[in-house]
Design a protein that fits this description.
heterodimer; A: four-stranded antiparallel sheet; 33 strands; rod-shaped; B: alpha/beta; flat; PES (chain B)
Chain lengths: 659, 593
């Protein structure tokens, strides 16, 4: 290597003293200061005695320090300018090895050896050419135990005495260990992280708590709308989207907006993913859990199994006749016991008599006041009609001449008693043109009469004058004796309607909420029926006498079995609006109810003679036909006495016959 | 009248419940520790039946725990560990403050830790219990494994989650237990049937997460801690059932193959092993080398009557399942770089296909694009420059739809660049009365083995089925037919297809047979209405409620049927003839452009 660098120049080798080598090693390479090529130099520059000072201090002087004799060393005359410098650089072949010496301000040309040295040092080699860096090492201290000490120095005393500081430290540690402050290192865990945890599983080893444990419900599985490419009908329209955005997050049916992407590449990240996971976590540890028994009921099973209406025939099914003639709402109707005639009273102050089969109006009577109630005498031998405002007894003069005359005879056969009792009503016999019209008797009541009813025998009739303030609300009249009596001493509430028991001497009085049953012979209250209704509107008694129905303004119909209880046996809520009229059929097991919703509902109401069997109630037909005027529909219903036909009168001024 | 007066709230429900704060005080835990304990032990609040009684007369809203639960927590050894950790933190802080470095080191060596094994065992006494409850664990671990390794949680947790999920996927691949897959806008749903349990999990799409600020990551981390423990044990057990080595090792054959191909310095050895596992392209090593999975035949027991039928049904089901497991067997797939590699590789491998991908995409690809034996290449870009003739270029949805349909669907609808048919959820099971998208009907017809040419017949069947519905849906179903007709008429008359709907004939006007039927129906309806009148109040209420729900569903269904963006423009599978402005016009007139 060295030979190569020198290129044959350094044939003669100059053994340099140690000093130079050391010094060069100490200083960094570029700062090598070499004075003359021909003299070896000890440390420091002996030609200049200024010492190690910055040479700039001599910048302004002509000399640059002093030599050993104390003479000034003058700077060489340097008049080289840039150009000279350049020319020198170009021409002088030794320019590259010329170095400027700052201490003497002279240029020095380096010798070959020196250049060689510089090269070697630049390469990181040793300055001395002959230095062998790979000499075999000499072990001064070996691992072998020697019998003699390296030094002969005797050991210190302290090496024989235990250290107090150490003792203190150790005692501290011992104390700490004793007290459990310092614990020995934990041994490393030897069991693997995962192993067969359920190797010895015991399904019965369930803790008490876990008996009540309700496992968390699983997450809902996604539907079509969650697809990245859902069918188009699942996408929201513009309005739906707007509605969705305006809704609160809790109210939304879908927690996300369905979106359609043309390809999988276009699907973005779901921004609420972490939220949803977090909410699930919250649900898992914060929500109370409850086991809800959801009964899976088939709604069809809830519907009661009833006999088919077809098997319960006959009952009216179709509207067959409409009786037109009245000009205002028809409040009340009543059929004659033979079933040939029908009487109706209306708000247009007329009473009309109709022939049932033809629908012809046979007779019209002006009565001078709105007619609230009409009732045909149930006794077939005579034919009387009680018409309200004051109560009128009419002889319609229809049908068999014998019947008509016998009726007249009945009224005229009255003989006034010896002593005139003072009565609540005045009985007056009609005469003249009124008599020709059919008026026979007039009972002038002190108050407006709302309802009249006949007793089954046809001799007694009761009239109702609803009044909350007096006990004079119900009057019972005897036609044959022209006698009137007030059965009640006390006012028990606003009387809505009354009725006679068809067979026994009982009298039914319906007040707003209760129906009271009085024994007329014993003159006492036998029963008080709780109807559970707010306001009773109408009442009808089964021809057998043991059952009763009440219609009320709060859309209910209560069926009472008098033998069973004072509470309704059955409550029907089949009408949508207030009930106005209820009626039983005399022979067939039917009852009807008419309401403001314009419908008449016919029910099969079978009462068994066997006391153990409860009545069977089956609605069989909803009859519609009446128009609703002024929020009123059907006002009264009544059955034909022999046929399974029902008449209904309505607020649309018509009467309809359903057969 | 002797005896002491009873004090209020000293017995009964008031003593059975305890408020959260009182429970916390009883356990001497901070709220955070109490929460952690509840999460780990699976304790949740209870809603008392009579809140006011339990709350000692106050009606303030409070969270109640069962007193028994809290007493149960009192004996939990982990509570002590919580306290020890608290002390450890305090000591460490002190040592730091005093600059006692040896002390710090010693403390760190003795850092208290806890194990959740006993809690897992206690919460899930049997393996099946644990497996039943693994849905959330899977979803959570999959989410955590996609987190970036910065900030939000410990890197160890993330790597552990990743490792466990990879193990799980490898198990599912080996056992071939995947059943359903669904691409939703949230992520990809998978459903597998493991030991008879249906397990569903959701994997987010591979994107960086935008971490929300209103989420408490400590809660999530606690759950993850519990889930990773549970999940690891389950994986161990599952691997054991299949005689696989746990932690999973690649088959020696596969390993050598992979080694030979990938000599580059891909990653550290430990990391690249996980990568190789997650590539899912190689089979796993078994404890006992078995030649082939023996066919587990259903044993036949002599049975009678109903049992026989059940047996046959079960046998059929089993057969179907076996067929589904071999759905893609024999096919060779190549995944382009733009498709989600992991999920597709997972699904395809689950059904027996061979999969590969570009070498630069991921480790583990076994063959190149140039391989001539590739049958399908999955591509999700509009067009490809270089196409091979002997393979199908299909979009990824084909794989998902085929898995859900349990059959290889015709590939034509899924070709490169075509508009995809809608992707339906396999989890929806329509009951009668529910809305069934027309695509599903088509699919069901396909599954029954009818060919698409028979579609029209099929449509007619459906027409009969829902005759009661208005003509709207009939229209939808037979649109295609109409379109064809329209195209036919276009040449002749260019007239609009004016539709004449048959009017209703009143029953009393004619006495034909049809009317008799109608009359009968009306009679039935009337009967029912009358019977409803006779219902008891309670039952009526229930009935009304049920009917209200039913009506609501039918309303929803009908709104879906005639949805305005319904017209189902995309359902048409025809290309617009280039010069057919008339058809365009016709369609626009009909309201379906």
């Amino acid at each position: 290597m060295e030979e190569k660098d020198d290129e044959g120049e350094s044939v003669c080798r100059l053994v340099q003293p140690e000093g130079l080598f050391m010094r060069v090693k100490k200083n960094s390479i570029p700062r090598v200061q070499i004075s003359t090529p021909y003299s070896t130099r000890p440390e420091g520059d002996i030609r200049n005695t200024v010492g190690n000072i910055p040479m700039e201090w001599y910048q302004d002087y002509p000399h640059i320090g002093y030599n050993l004799d104390g003479k000034k060393i003058f700077k060489p005359i340097r008049n080289k300018d840039e150009l000279d410098e350049f020319l020198d650089k170009m021409e002088n072949p030794d320019y590259w090895r010329t170095v400027h010496d700052k201490t003497t301000a002279s240029d020095i040309r380096l010798s070959d050896e020196q250049v060689d040295l510089v090269h070697r040092l630049q390469k990181g080699q040793f300055g001395d050419v002959n230095f062998n860096e790979y000499e075999p090492s000499v072990d001064f201290f070996t691992n072998e135990v020697m019998i003699h000490p390296v030094t002969n120095r005797p050991q210190d005393k302290r090496s024989f005495i235990p250290s107090l500081i150490e003792k203190e430290k150790v005692s501290k540690l011992v104390h700490a260990i004793k007290m459990g402050w310092i614990k020995p290192r934990k041994p490393k865990e030897t069991t693997p992280q995962y192993y067969d945890l359920w190797a010895k599983e015991d399904p019965n080893a369930i803790l008490g708590r876990h008996k009540m444990h309700v496992p968390a419900p699983k997450m809902r599985l996604p539907g079509h709308e969650e697809s990245y490419n859902p069918p188009p009908e699942y996408l929201l329209t513009e309005e739906e989207r707007m509605a969705w955005e305006q809704q609160d997050a809790e109210d939304r049916k879908l927690p996300f907006l369905p979106q359609k992407h043309s390809c999988l590449r276009a699907v973005p990240a779901f921004s609420r993913f972490i939220h949803e996971r977090f909410e699930r976590c919250l649900d898992l540890y914060l929500c109370p859990r409850q086991r809800k028994m959801r009964v899976n009921v088939n709604p069809e099973d809830l519907i009661p199994k009833l006999p088919k209406p077809k098997d319960l025939q006959p009952f009216p099914t179709t509207m067959s006749l409409v009786y037109i003639g009245h000009s205002s709402l028809v409040r009340s109707i009543s059929a004659s016991p033979t079933g040939q005639w029908l009487v109706s009273g209306s708000d247009d102050c007329t009473v009309r008599f109709w022939e049932v089969n033809t629908g012809r109006c046979m007779k019209t009577l002006e009565v001078g006041g709105a007619v609230k109630s009409v009732a045909w005498n149930p006794n077939p031998a005579v034919c009387l009609v009680a018409v309200e405002s004051t109560v009128l007894l009419l002889n319609p003069g229809l049908g068999d001449r014998l019947v008509v005359s016998s009726t007249d005879q009945l009224i005229t056969s009255y003989e006034p008693p010896e002593e005139d009792k003072e009565q609540a009503v005045t009985w007056a016999l009609s005469e003249g043109p009124e008599h020709d019209n059919g008026h026979r008797l007039t009972l002038t009541h002190p108050k407006a009469v709302k309802q009249v009813v006949w007793h089954g025998k046809g001799d007694y009739l009761a009239s109702v004058m609803p009044d909350n303030s007096s006990n004079l609300q119900v009057l019972i009249h005897q036609v044959s004796k022209r006698r009137t009596q007030n059965p009640f001493r006390k006012n028990k509430g606003l009387v809505q309607c009354v009725s006679f028991h068809p067979l026994r001497p009982y009298f039914f009085v319906a007040t707003q909420r209760y129906v009271r049953v009085y024994n007329l012979i014993k003159q006492e209250l036998t029963k008080k029926l709780m109807t559970n209704c707010k306001w009773i509107s109408s009442m009808a008694i089964h021809p057998g006498g043991d059952n009763l129905i009440c219609g009320s303004y709060d859309c209910r119909l209560a069926w009472f079995d008098l033998d069973l209880s004072t509470k309704p046996y059955k409550m029907l809520r089949h009408h949508k609006k207030a009930l106005r009229g209820v009626a039983y059929h005399k022979h067939y097991p039917l009852f009807a109810s008419g309401a403001d919703d314009g419908s008449v509902i016919i029910c099969h109401g079978m009462v068994y003679n066997d006391l153990l069997q409860n009545p069977l109630i089956v609605p069989v037909k909803v009859l519609k036909g009446h128009q609703i005027t002024h929020d009123l529909g059907v006002l009264d219903v009544t059955f034909h006495p022999t046929q399974p036909w029902v008449f209904s009168s309505g607020a649309d001024a018509t009467i309809r016959l359903f057969t | 009248m002797g005896g002491l007066q009873k004090k209020k709230y000293e017995r009964g429900s008031a003593t059975n419940y305890i408020t959260r704060n009182k429970a916390r005080k009883k356990l001497q835990l901070s709220l955070a520790d109490f929460r952690r304990l509840c999460i780990l032990k699976g304790i949740y609040p209870h809603e008392p039946k009579h809140k006011k009684k339990v709350n000692k007369g106050s009606t303030a809203p409070r969270t109640f725990y069962l007193f028994k639960d809290i007493r149960f927590l009192l004996h939990e050894p982990i509570v002590r560990k919580f306290r020890e950790y608290k002390v450890f933190v305090r000591k460490l802080r002190k040592a730091y403050g005093k600059a006692e470095w040896t002390g710090v080191e010693r403390l760190r060596d003795n850092k208290p830790g806890y194990k959740l094994d006993h809690i897992i065992k206690e919460r899930y006494p049997t393996f099946i219990d644990a497996l039943r409850d693994i849905d959330d664990a899977l979803s959570m671990c999959f989410l955590f494994s996609t987190f970036a390794r910065t900030g939000k949680c410990h890197v160890q947790t993330i790597t552990l989650c990743r490792r466990l999920t990879v193990e799980w996927m490898n198990y599912v691949v080996t056992s071939r237990s995947l059943r359903k897959v669904f691409l939703s806008i949230k992520g990809i749903y998978y459903q597998a049937e493991v030991l008879g349990q249906l397990i569903t999990w959701l994997v987010p799409y591979q994107f960086a997460h935008d971490h929300p600020t209103d989420v408490d990551y400590r809660v999530m981390a606690t759950f993850t801690e519990m889930y990773t423990t549970l999940f690891g044990f389950i994986n161990f057990r599952l691997y054991q059932t299949l005689n696989l080595v746990y932690p999973p090792k690649l088959d020696s054959k596969a390993e050598s193959e992979l080694k030979a191909e990938h000599e580059e310095d891909y990653a550290m050895d430990s990391e690249s092993y996980l990568e190789k596992l997650s590539a899912l392209s190689a089979s796993l090593a078994r404890v006992v080398a078995t030649a082939e999975e023996e066919e587990n035949q259903l044993d036949l027991f002599p049975t009678e009557g109903e049992d026989q039928e059940n047996m046959q049904a079960r046998e059929k089901e089993q057969k179907e399942q076996e067929a589904q497991k071999r759905l893609f067997e024999g096919l060779k797939f190549f995944l382009n770089r733009e498709v989600p590699r992991e999920s597709l590789a997972f699904i395809l491998r689950c059904f027996g296909a061979e999969v590969s991908w570009d070498k630069s995409l991921c480790i583990g690809g076994t063959y190149e694009v140039t391989d001539e034996t590739i049958t399908h290449q999955i591509v999700d870009r509009p067009d490809m420059d270089k196409q091979y003739i002997n393979r199908y270029y299909i979009q990824p949805q084909w794989v998902f739809d085929s898995v859900n349909a349990q059959m290889r669907l015709p590939v034509e609808d899924y070709f490169l660049g075509t508009t995809l048919p809608p992707h339906l959820s396999p989890f929806v099971e329509e009951k009668d009365g529910d809305y069934v998208p027309p695509e599903k009907l088509k699919l069901m017809a396909l599954q029954r083995g009818e060919k698409p040419e028979e579609e029209e017949e099929d449509d007619e069947e459906e027409e009969e089925e829902d005759e009661e519905e208005d003509d709207v849906d009939d229209e939808e179903l037979t649109e295609e037919k109409n379109l064809k007709k329209m195209e036919g008429t276009r040449a002749q008359g260019k007239t609009l297809a004016v539709k004449v709907t048959p009017g209703k004939v009143k029953p009393w006007e004619t006495g034909s047979v049809g009317n008799k039927v109608r009359l009968e129906q009306e009679e039935k309806a009337e009967e029912k209405r009358l019977a409803i009148m006779m219902m008891k109040k309670k039952e009526k209420y229930l009935y009304d409620k049920i009917m209200f729900g039913k009506k609501r569903t039918t309303r929803e269904v009908s709104s879906l049927r005639c949805a305005p963006n319904g017209c189902k423009a995309t359902h048409f599978k025809f290309e617009w003839p280039s010069q057919s402005p008339d058809l365009n016009l016709i369609l626009r007139c009909c309201g379906r452009t």
